[in-house]
């Protein structure tokens, strides 16, 4: 059944049009004016056949994407990936080691659940923007905006995989 969901997953462009992608990029940019963390959003319609064959979970794929996109490569070790796998209806957040002992998995999961609730409402862009705002609220206390802080180390534009 999972194979079929991934094979026939709707295209990301159909699900998130250019206006929605621009809105998401603006939300990331706005959030990063409130903290020194770095947020990266990546969305994928379905897994590649090799990942499906290996039984890769959405979490494992998110960790792979985190590494591939270099989200870990920030001066403060404060990069965070928001990953959406459309075919599995899964949202994952992968945070760099700078968040260890600061933000726990349950807090990140709550941000994911906020997005999931919004997605069920049929407004994907609004749901993702709300999730970015929830993530910013978790990031800001630990990586407050500093003058001359290293901002825009990662691209704010959503990544379609």
Describe this structure in words.
With 161 residues, the chain is of the alpha/beta class. It has a single domain (2-144, 153-160), classed as Diaminopimelate Epimerase, Chain A, domain 1 (Roll). The chain contains 7 helices and 4 strands, in the order H-H-H-E-H-H-E-E-H-H-E. It has helices spanning 2-7, 12-15, 18-31, 49-53, 58-68, 105-120, 124-139; strands at residues 38-44, 79-85, 90-95, 159-160. A 4-stranded mixed sheet has the order 3-2-1-4, with helices on both faces. Strand 2 and strand 3 form a beta hairpin.
* Rg result: 15 Å
What integer is the average pLDDT? 92
Q: From the 3D coordinates, which CATH architecture would you assign?
A: Roll
Total of helices: 7
Enumerate the spans where pLDDT stays under 50 for 5 or more consecutive residues.
Answer: none
Helical content stands at 40-55%
Strand residue content: 5-15%
Give the tally of structural domains.
1
Domain TPM: 16-137
Protein name: TPM domain-containing protein
Pfam families: TPM_phosphatase
Organism: Novilysobacter selenitireducens
